[in-house]
Amino acid sequence: MATAAPPTLTAETTPLSRHLFTRIRLATPSDIPHIHKLIHQMAVYERLTHLFSATESSLSATLFSPTVQPFHSFTILLLEASPTPFPFSTVDSNPFFKPITKLVNLSLPFEDPERDTFKSMDDVTVTGFVLFFPNYSTFLGKPGFYVENLYVRECYRRMGFGKMLLCAVAKEAVKMKYGRVDWVVLDWNVNALRFYEGMGGETVEEYKFFRMTGKALEACGNTH
Questions:
Q1: Tens digit of pLDDT for each residue in 154-166?
Q2: Helix axes 56-63, 32-45, angle to 10 degrees
Q3: How far is CA 53 from CA 1, 84, 189, in A?
Q4: Is residue 196 among the annotated active site residues?
Q5: Residue 137, strand partner residues
Q6: How far is CA 130 from CA 28, 95, 108, in A?
């Protein structure tokens, strides 16, 4: 039985001549090189390159498991942009996630200096991603999602793409009847704080974020 292609977005009726076709889709193992580059860019932006040790091999070995369904473990949604409508492809028939498409009108000229570096197919460029996984709230008695990373490349910021990615996670949480979505923001990142507050995110002042890693993790893990 043939699968009908979804309606194609067009720019013929838009008032602005500058536009981008955008798509949020599930990442696949073939996207690992782009994901690795995005994570490195994020580490540079957050001044945390001293903590960056991920490799394409380590990401490939840990992020994608053929035995685990998306949204029930580590999940990555990629945001792509194109000057032309996206062609119908296998991602459109993915049983776990239907790609979210949106036509974005731009009021100013736009140029992506890294278009070739982040090219995923003809005229399609990877612009950002969100990585998240399930957690659990004993107070709510419900699962939720924890957003580990949400990143949009610099030249694509202030276009609403961060909102699109976060809303995609929230949409899945609502669909799965989860109770909340959590994330952490660096305290110096004023732009991110304002963005998340504008999205309805609440700062939980009563809690401090703790982490155990490296030698401390090994020492605790080897305690008998």
A1: 999 999 999 999 9
A2: 110
A3: 46, 36, 23
A4: yes
A5: 142
A6: 13, 20, 26
Active-site hit among 151, 156, 196, 207: 196
12, part of any domain: no
Total domains in the chain come to 1
CA–centroid distance for 61 within its chain: 19
Give alpha helix (H) positions in 13-132.
32-45, 56-63
Q: Which domain holds residue 63?
A: 19-221
SS3 content of the chain, % helix, strand, coil (to 5): 30, 25, 45
Q: Report how far residue 119's alpha carbon sits from residue 116's, in angstroms, rounded to the nearest whole number.
A: 5
Q: How far is the C-alpha of 6 from the C-alpha of 3, rounded, in Å?
A: 9
- Residues 91-113 have pLDDT tens digits of 777 888 999 999 998 877 778 99
